[in-house]
């Protein structure tokens, strides 16, 4: 398989697998709840790893052996249909398991905090940082220790160890079931979104009273759940407010309890504001895709670069090319605790903000570092290629450790942007839709995988004409990967400008549209308190009605 084809296959697989959490988020928020979805995901993952272990340990589930000579001549016999089916079943179980665990384990953990208190809010912020730190540390163990066991000891043991760890984690998860806080599912969010849009469209010709009077006439019943935060009425996307206007009391509401009778004609203020939350975050979400494109390309192309470089550390140890990504992971594991314990308290004293800087500012810093890392990568690649050209050799006496700075920058970028994204989506989505919020983060990576494929394919096809070198030539020394890095840096710079624009006009959930919380963090807290008071008054007035 050619190098470019391998890169694209990896991007497509990464993108496809990252969409699986959408299914898990839908089932969690609409039907099962987070606890059951995580439980089913853990069981599916364990079964998938058991099947993977069997494919490595049971001879009848493996294709015939193949010598190095047969492999070189292309004469190896592939797996039978039955053997391939067993392997596919394992992958399906693992995908379903990941689709259940990925979108729900973090939101389920956040449900355990009381975010109406200062301690609860600080706890959630710490939880996001430490969650990503431990998750990254687990990936490091998988890429080093587990890979070593698989390559040097036994593939059967290499699969059995993760299977055993998953079983242990599942047992520990069930042990706390009597202590957990559970947020019940609220029904399908997708149908709820469509219902709001349809109801607003049906009443598009209806005139609403002035904003100050709308709270008195719009359908705004008290919430059934005491865990979910009630959202105040806002005037952003005010055309959607028409969905909550009552046109026919006897037809749209039940006479007995005043509940909805026709959800496709009338929606509550709470559901309208939930839809607004989703609309607000979409422009911010797009910016994360380009950030992950840079991260993904660093991981894949750095491996190709390292194949032409000296990977030795000392006389007896050589770094495997695929293990270079560990430097990015190590940067995340080391930087996040420093950020959480050292930088946040310092920034908190300067800005007065609970998290030191706002979530949008944190994401913006990550996008900037991501684009800057591409510039550094381009400079290092220019040095490597120039040395190969001057020596006339495929390999160069240049240490692969020269790639470490760009990989470390990518890790720091991820620590800022990725963790910022997760926390931002979980804060800005409605409480009962946090599973969908986390799945949106994974969809950023999915979108990045597909966008990377488009960019790589476009560059590969458009360059290399009129006697000029192809930037992404199969022989990396004959290409111009440095130009490709600079292109990604320019795209990252454009993405940063786009992000700054949409972030400037963004308004946080529950805040008035005429105040931007990134500029006035202390005013944001006062506005939130006013919103809570107003929400309580609205609940009382609704209950009296």
TrEMBL record:
<feature type="region of interest" description="Disordered">
    <location>
        <begin position="516"/>
        <end position="545"/>
    </location>
</feature>
<feature type="transmembrane region" description="Helical">
    <location>
        <begin position="359"/>
        <end position="380"/>
    </location>
</feature>
<comment type="similarity">
    <text>Belongs to the major facilitator superfamily. Proton-dependent oligopeptide transporter (POT/PTR) (TC 2.A.17) family.</text>
</comment>
<feature type="transmembrane region" description="Helical">
    <location>
        <begin position="130"/>
        <end position="149"/>
    </location>
</feature>
<feature type="transmembrane region" description="Helical">
    <location>
        <begin position="319"/>
        <end position="339"/>
    </location>
</feature>
<protein>
    <submittedName>
        <fullName>Putative low-affinity proton-dependent nitrate transporter</fullName>
    </submittedName>
</protein>
<keyword id="KW-0812">Transmembrane</keyword>
<feature type="compositionally biased region" description="Basic and acidic residues">
    <location>
        <begin position="530"/>
        <end position="539"/>
    </location>
</feature>
<feature type="transmembrane region" description="Helical">
    <location>
        <begin position="38"/>
        <end position="58"/>
    </location>
</feature>
<feature type="transmembrane region" description="Helical">
    <location>
        <begin position="156"/>
        <end position="175"/>
    </location>
</feature>
<feature type="transmembrane region" description="Helical">
    <location>
        <begin position="277"/>
        <end position="299"/>
    </location>
</feature>
<dbReference type="InterPro" id="IPR036259">
    <property type="entry name" value="MFS_trans_sf"/>
</dbReference>
<dbReference type="GO" id="GO:0022857">
    <property type="term" value="F:transmembrane transporter activity"/>
</dbReference>
<feature type="transmembrane region" description="Helical">
    <location>
        <begin position="400"/>
        <end position="419"/>
    </location>
</feature>
<dbReference type="Pfam" id="PF00854">
    <property type="entry name" value="PTR2"/>
</dbReference>
<keyword id="KW-0472">Membrane</keyword>
<feature type="transmembrane region" description="Helical">
    <location>
        <begin position="84"/>
        <end position="101"/>
    </location>
</feature>
<dbReference type="GO" id="GO:0055085">
    <property type="term" value="P:transmembrane transport"/>
</dbReference>
<dbReference type="GO" id="GO:0005886">
    <property type="term" value="C:plasma membrane"/>
</dbReference>
<dbReference type="InterPro" id="IPR000109">
    <property type="entry name" value="POT_fam"/>
</dbReference>
<feature type="transmembrane region" description="Helical">
    <location>
        <begin position="483"/>
        <end position="506"/>
    </location>
</feature>
<keyword id="KW-1133">Transmembrane helix</keyword>
